[in-house]
Design brief:
The chain is mainly alpha-helical.
Length: 288
């Protein structure tokens, strides 16, 4: 089976689970459920749940049985995007080629939609934790990745350094926490549930997160309409990026080096590694 075909199997399975979950997001007032569903269903590559499913499959686990943690991953990621786009943060009017949540529903409703998605993710993680100790550990790993020592800390550091002079150390600190934590989490969760090497899964996740962010920074300057968000926004906002620290040539070189490091880790993977290896190459070569 080709990489695109296998990716679509994981993605379509997750979309089916997400559609079913969204059908139950009906609340009073109605706008809350509408705004949650809008951002959850606006599209995207679903890279985090796909990573989770693919890592479980590589270890020989029943990946279709872990819907709660996969949905929790996407709820957390989506809430972070809603809040990221707000005027007080990245101030972006578009997400995945469509109006950002706050442009469609207003700033206050967007904040509340993000809050509700994070709370919903907690419900899903607690439901998963009821399956046993390994699921509890996996849920705790995801909660830590999302919180004050993980993604939120990375967002805070990103805001703190916007418009200020900083260097490589600060850049990779932001990469690791803001992006890397929620890329590493699905891999580590799969390792926990499968009894495999968690340190190796985490190392791959952090490198994969850095690769994703390096490529994202580069695309912010070079991407076209297919990018689905405002081009050149990072530079206009004075964001700390690989381009502001290293320039284009070295940034491209670092992306290639990071991809090779991911592939090296995968050469020592305890399971079937072909899909994950192709995923690394796909992330490096993406244009959106």
């Amino acid at each position: 089976m080709s990489f695109p075909e296998q990716y679509e199997i994981y993605r379509s399975q997750f979309e089916e689970e997400l559609q079913a979950e969204c059908a139950g997001l009906n609340f009073h007032p109605q706008v809350l459920g509408e705004s949650m569903r809008y951002s959850l269903l606006v599209g995207g590559k679903r890279i985090r749940p796909v990573l989770f499913y693919a890592a479980l499959a590589s270890f020989g686990a029943d990946w279709k049985a872990e819907r709660e943690l996969a949905l929790a991953l996407e709820c957390i990621h989506t809430y972070s995007l809603i809040h990221d786009d707000l005027p007080a943060m990245d101030n972006d009017d578009f997400r995945r080629g469509k109006p950002s949540n706050h442009k469609k529903f207003g700033e206050a409703n967007a904040i509340l939609a993000g809050d509700a998605l994070l709370s919903h993710a907690c419900e899903l993680m607690l439901a998963a934790a009821e399956k046993g100790k390994l699921h509890l550990r996996a849920a705790r790993r995801l909660a830590a990745a999302a919180g004050e020592r993980g993604m939120v800390a990375g967002q805070s550091e990103d805001l703190l350094l916007t418009g200020k002079r900083a260097g490589e150390k600060e850049l990779f600190s932001i990469y690791r926490r803001k992006t890397g934590e929620l890329i590493a989490a699905p891999l580590v969760m799969a390792a926990i549930l499968s009894g495999k090497d968690e340190a190796r899964a985490e190392r791959l996740g952090y490198d994969l997160g850095a690769l994703f962010q390096l490529t994202d920074d580069i695309l912010d300057e070079t991407g076209g309409a297919e990018l689905g968000k405002t081009r050149g926004k990072d530079r206009e906002e004075g964001k700390l990026t690989c381009l502001s620290v290293f320039g284009m040539e070295k940034s491209l070189r670092l992306a290639d080096e990071t991809a090779r490091r991911c592939e090296k880790t995968l050469s020592e993977w305890e399971g079937e590694n072909s899909f994950l290896t192709e995923l690394v190459r796909n992330i490096r070569s993406r244009n959106k």
